[in-house]
């Protein structure tokens, strides 16, 4: 089977595109507006941009009316947002926070979530999330789609502070992803749980490994494992 999305000639009853780029992490973004109203919403069009400095992005589609998502507007106006890790234990709250509600209604309260204030701003964080990234707003790029719903605000933020629950740090000093059990989007209304990870070392010559270690030593001060990002 093959088809051209631009010609809208997909032979399947449901478009498979969003199930072809999977699994996708969920950016569970918390923010506040200029009146202090708090917002929490999940986005699966998201990811890491770079790691030095650490930067992340999420894409917020416009509403059919052309109205922009609160998360995007709040990040721009307030200058901060928090990326909370979405996990299996919190999946029902993640789903509830995806509801379309008035801007002055708190998704934290709607989902029954405990919150804690971020260190560097007044943005609330999901207390029970095992990892929170405090992000300083950097920029917005508007990508025009076929109509308002296809148009997105691509929000970029620099991670200024990282919070990790010590219960999920292994004795070797790694984040216990299998223990955290993050959830990810699979397209349609389907999700998955990350609970079975494995390692693969990228082959490289000793000469290249030496060069890589020298490059990374300036910021990490420790040898790099082949294929590992700092």
UniProtKB/TrEMBL annotation:
Flavin reductase like domain ranges (all copies): 19-178
Pfam family, one: Flavin_Reduct
Database matches in SMART domains: Flavin_Reduct
Domain of life according to the entry: Bacteria
Name of the protein described by the UniProt record: Flavin reductase family protein
SUPFAM superfamilies noted in UniProt: FMN-binding split barrel
InterPro entries: Flavin_Rdtase-like_dom, Split_barrel_FMN-bd
Originating organism: Metapseudomonas boanensis
């Amino acid at each position: 089977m093959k088809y051209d999305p631009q010609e809208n000639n997909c032979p399947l009853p449901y478009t498979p595109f969003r199930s072809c780029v999977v699994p996708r992490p969920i950016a569970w973004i918390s923010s506040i507006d200029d009146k202090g109203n708090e917002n929490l919403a999940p986005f699966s069009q998201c990811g890491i941009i770079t790691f030095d400095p650490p930067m992340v992005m999420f894409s917020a589609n416009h509403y059919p009316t052309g109205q922009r998502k609160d998360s995007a507007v709040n990040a721009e106006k307030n200058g901060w947002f928090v990326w909370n890790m979405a996990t299996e234990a919190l999946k029902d709250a993640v789903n509830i926070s995806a509801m379309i509600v008035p801007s002055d209604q708190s998704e934290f309260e709607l989902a029954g979530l405990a919150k804690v204030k971020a260190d560097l701003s007044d943005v609330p964080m999901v207390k029970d999330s095992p990892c929170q990234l405090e992000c300083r707003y950097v920029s917005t790029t508007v990508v025009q789609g076929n109509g308002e719903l296809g148009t997105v605000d691509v929000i970029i933020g620099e991670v200024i502070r990282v919070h990790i629950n010590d219960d999920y740090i292994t004795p070797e000093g790694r984040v216990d992803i299998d223990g955290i059990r993050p959830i990810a989007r699979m397209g349609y209304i389907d999700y998955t749980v990350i609970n079975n990870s494995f390692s693969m070392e990228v082959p490289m010559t000793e000469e290249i490994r030496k060069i890589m270690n020298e490059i990374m030593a300036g910021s990490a001060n420790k040898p790099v494992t082949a294929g590992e990002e700092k």
